[in-house]
Amino acid sequence: MKNISRYLSILFPLTIAIGVGYYFVTHSPLAGLSLLYLAFVYMPAPFYSLLLLRLIYKEKVEYSKFLSIKTIKIKDILFTIGIFLTWVVSLFVLTIILGIIAPDIFGKLVTTNAELLEIVTKMVGPELAKSAKLPPTPFLLIPIGLVGAIVSGFTINMIFALGEEIAWRGYLWTQLKELPFFKKHLLIGGLWGLWHASVIIQGYNYGTDYAWVGVIFFILFCAVFSLLFGVLIEKTHNALYAAVLHGMFNGFAGIFVIMIINYNPFIGGGIGIVSMLAILLSFALLRFSQAWTNNKMVK
């Protein structure tokens, strides 16, 4: 635990400083570069902290224990995609059902281009919305979103997500390896969520009206989400797959926000209660599948 304490003593002060930088970027003429700042400065902060850990405390980080290109297998790639698709299907099923029951609370999937245009207008403004090229039907967003998320998850999104996963499902996972599954991954997930506080308190994800609630809620969300990552890392022992899953989630969540109309981000969408329920359902299905497979192999 001493190594973890040292690492966190570097990570969180560094992240707070970067978060302050994000505030000044977003409140300056450079506001248009805020996403680049997040991608190149904020997201890799866990990796930067590992470099500082070695520089300050002379601690050698054994990356080979959790990061390897040589151990990549087709079946693990398919397993990673399978986890992602299980969450996506669960998310859609729950969104449709809850949208029918209480659309004013959970929101509902867009079914017409008029509804899609309304969402786009809220996001980019009426002028830019006029030039937006909408698909013939909103339902095309589903395969487009899935393909885009998977492709970006294995390419650009993976690269940026690895700056985080090299710590969460890499270094911290090896340091906590002896802990029971739930204790280990809920703890990692909680730290993962808390690490986002510097930007969430500024309105990222949930807006500025409920910033502090957003911080607490996102810690809970990441703790739950960490269970899916736990299933993945315990099977593959390779943070590269976690970065791919993380990248696919980021890619699809970005598309999913324009697939739902009239929803509260704390409830619907990719980072709300409905998504958490989808994660828990996916986790239960994956654990059941693994138990059934193991039982079948024993017989």
* Estimated share of beta-strand residues: under 5%
Give the % helix.
over 70%
Query: Helices and strands, in N-to-C order?
Result: HHHHHEHHHHHHHHEH
**Backbone structural class:** mainly alpha
Rg (C-alpha, Å): 20 Å
Number of helices: 14
Gap from first CA to last CA: 40 Å
Oligomer: single chain
Q: How many domain modules?
A: 2
Largest sheet: 2 strands, antiparallel
- Strand elements, count: 2
Low-pLDDT residue spans: none
How confident is the prediction overall: mean pLDDT? 92
- The geometry reads as globular
Order of neighbouring strands in the sheet with most strands = 1-2
Question: Describe it for me?
Answer:
The chain is mainly alpha-helical and 299 residues long. It has two domains: 1-61; 68-298, no CATH class. It has helices at 2-26, 34-42, 45-57, 74-101, 103-106, 113-124, 126-130, 141-153, 156-175, 181-195, 197-200, 211-236, 239-256, 273-298; strands spanning 108-109, 260-261. It has a two-stranded antiparallel ribbon. The relative contact order is 0.15. The model has no long low-confidence stretch (mean pLDDT 92).
Short description:
This protein has 299 residues and is mainly alpha-helical. Helix content is 73%, strand content 1%.
Features:
2 strands, mainly alpha, 299 residues, 14 helices
SSE inventory with pairings:
Layout: H1 2-26, H2 34-42, H3 45-57, H4 74-101, H5 103-106, E1 108-109, H6 113-124, H7 126-130, H8 141-153, H9 156-175, H10 181-195, H11 197-200, H12 211-236, H13 239-256, E2 260-261, H14 273-298
Antiparallel strand pairs: 1-2
Helix pairs in contact: 1-2, 1-3, 3-9, 4-12, 4-13, 4-14, 8-13, 9-10, 9-13, 10-12, 12-13, 12-14
